[in-house]
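@here heads up, posting the sequence + SMILES for the flavin-adenine dinucleotide run so it's all in one place. Ping me if the SMILES looks off, I pulled it from an old spreadsheet.
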Amino acid sequence: MNFNFTDEQNKFRQEVRHFLNRELPADYIEYIGTTIDDSVVHVGDGFGIFKKMARKYGEKGWLSMSWPKEYGGSSGTNIDNLIFFEEIARRGSPGFNAVGTKMLAPTLIIFGNQEQKGKYLEPIARGEQFWCEGFSEPEAGSDLAALQTKAIRSGDYYIVNGQKTWSTLVTYCDHCCLLARTDPDSKRHRGLSFLLVDLNTPGITVKPIENLLGEPHFGEIFFEDAKVPVTNLVGAENDGWKVAQTFLGYERVYIAPFAVVNTMIDKLAEYFSAHPADDMKTVQDALAEFTVEAEVGRMICYQVAWLQDHDRATEWHAAITRLFGTRLLKRAASSALQLLGLYGQLNLHDDRAPLKGWIEHLYYSAIGSTIAAGTTEIQKTVIAVRGLGMTSN
Ligand SMILES: Cc1cc2nc3c(=O)[nH]c(=O)nc-3n(C[C@H](O)[C@H](O)[C@H](O)COP(=O)(O)OP(=O)(O)OC[C@H]3O[C@@H](n4cnc5c(N)ncnc54)[C@H](O)[C@@H]3O)c2cc1C
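bot reply: prediction finished. Complex structure tokens:
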């Protein structure tokens, strides 16, 4: 592995940085708090900024960079993608709809038919269509194969009934990737299908769920005899588990926590230079420790991206980045809150909050990151079973 970025990659990183300096509104941080990922945007006109930035990424071609040229991409590498993700996460820049761009689009390139590719890839690449993931249910999270939502074929439609939950950004999205049971007599992962659903379809109701910050980060989706055209089936009927596994595989390397921890370190170093703590040695030691861990995590992420570019990465490599990153983020945010003392607990609506409540927001956001896309326990199982070859319990 070459530990240097190429000249083009260094130039690209600089281009993204200049672009973000130029395009992000000066006060955007007050609208969005901390973005660990594609989290937005729950204050003021946060989603307006999200949409504006998404279109601008689209104009630059950055949302479709790694797609093959025949689908409008530029056949970029996973390392190119990671540079882009790292830079936007480092600035907390909104506008990246991970479900549509990073997960659905490459899945459609493999499993979608020509009509589906023609209809959906372009608006995703332009940053004009926003997708959420409708997989989890009240009784199916870690054990996704237990899901109960049914989609029963009737002529040219599937009639969908059931409930999804924890769907990130659903209240802002226009479309949903749905995993539902198309064979009502099936058990577990057999008999499931992957469907593309327009959320404006009659029979679909969305209800926001507030996260720990009181923001409608995710929501429930209720289906009551909602009609989804058969043409929206991706892959074969009853073979949706395979499609879903590919889709989830594209969540892959998770560099955002390391980028965010680096931003946190920069912010705290600047803050404590202007407002020295009684015990600066404790502050310095903490920031030094987190700098080491964030740097190690970054390196692992780029190594995994390199392995992916050489078709040598596996699912458990990506699980390492998620396990390490989300736990680091949680520890770092908790430590930062303590370093700031009691005022650190004030939120962005309070003028006395240090760093405009950024750390308080990070502290709460970090907790969900250890659950989303597979909990800490599940990531450990993936590493033990698929990486170390141990037997599943
Ligand atoms: C911020 C956030 C965003 C999310 N976004 C989405 C989304 O967009 N779309 C979507 O479909 N879902 C989403 N989810 C849901 C997420 O995928 C589930 O919450 C997660 O898979 C855990 O499922 P659960 O909540 O049902 O908990 P459970 O699966 O019931 O787990 C409860 C506890 O038991 C542990 N546990 C469960 N099984 C095992 C096991 N086999 N071995 C060891 N420990 C185990 C878990 O680690 C956890 O600690 C999101 C969740 C969060 C927090």
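MO: The longest strand covers residues 157-168.
MO: One more: The two ends are 35 Å apart (CA to CA).
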